[in-house]
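Severity: low
Component: inverse-folding endpoint
Summary: output formatting inconsistent between runs
Steps to reproduce: submit the following structure tokens with default settings.
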């Protein structure tokens, strides 16, 4: 995918594949319903990807989220069936004639391991290093504070080695609330999945695209009740979905899915049966 909005070229950057439990991914929705769009394997896991968005323009190369990275234990890699046989972040950047060192900014929607694990890596001497040494990393201040002190319910999703180094190296820009990174990029905090996750909208006077992160992780999560069991505040997620799905459908925004291995982008339409995903025709 290549799309031009404002001064930015927008690219899809696949960073890898993995799987998560389908029941956890769809919460109270019965398997007979979610299995139609997201079929599970014999361990009840559904196919997922970690798709970053790359913005090139205005003298910047901005990456939105960084995937799982390479620091997980062998046990966790097996549990999540992490697969780098086809995609890695480095391979995807190389196809665009870019290296990690070229990235000027990293926007982190939130700090769960499947979104922020690629921030850092261990070198051959087992020293923790920044994956993007020339980048400024942007995250919501309230979310960073939450990640530093997670609850017993969600602490398994936060690995400090993915983000503490950013603060130590003084490359972390902590944002408070809705924020315009520039005239084309707006960050919107949402609080249902985790405290102060941020969505990323790129827009000009003609077109807009919204990076949905974990508000709507796959096209199969478009219907309002399809909310993850992982969400800390599911009723908040419901209200946030109502708001943004109305905005998306009424204003004809494109949407960008982070975790759907089969659908990169598309449209959302409001029908008599509720909100539905529609593949782009342009």
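Observed output (run 2 of 3):
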């Amino acid at each position: 995918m290549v799309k031009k909005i404002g001064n930015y070229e927008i690219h899809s950057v696949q960073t890898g594949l993995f799987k998560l439990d389908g029941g956890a991914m769809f919460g109270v929705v019965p398997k007979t319903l979610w299995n139609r769009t997201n079929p599970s394997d014999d361990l009840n896991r559904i196919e997922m990807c970690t798709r970053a968005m790359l913005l090139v323009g205005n003298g910047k190369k901005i990456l939105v989220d960084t995937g799982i990275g390479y620091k997980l234990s062998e046990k966790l890699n097996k549990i999540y069936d992490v697969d780098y046989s086809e995609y890695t972040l480095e391979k995807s950047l190389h196809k665009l004639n870019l290296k990690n060192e070229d990235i000027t900014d990293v926007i982190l929607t939130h700090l769960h391991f499947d979104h922020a694990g690629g921030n850092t890596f261990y070198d051959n001497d087992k020293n923790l290093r920044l994956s993007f040494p020339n980048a400024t990393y942007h995250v919501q201040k309230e979310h960073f504070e939450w990640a530093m002190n997670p609850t017993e319910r969600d602490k398994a999703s936060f690995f400090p080695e993915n983000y503490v180094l950013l603060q130590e190296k003084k490359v972390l820009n902590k944002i408070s609330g809705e924020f315009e990174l520039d005239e084309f990029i707006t960050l919107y905090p949402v609080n249902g999945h985790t405290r102060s996750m941020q969505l990323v909208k790129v827009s000009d006077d003609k077109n807009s695209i919204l990076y949905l992160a974990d508000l709507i992780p796959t096209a199969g999560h478009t219907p309002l009740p399809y909310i993850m069991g992982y969400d800390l505040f599911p009723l908040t997620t419901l209200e946030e979905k109502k708001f943004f799905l109305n905005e998306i459908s009424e204003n004809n925004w494109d949407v960008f899915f982070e975790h759907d291995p089969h659908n990169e982008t598309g449209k959302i339409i409001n029908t008599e049966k509720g909100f539905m995903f529609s593949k782009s025709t342009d």
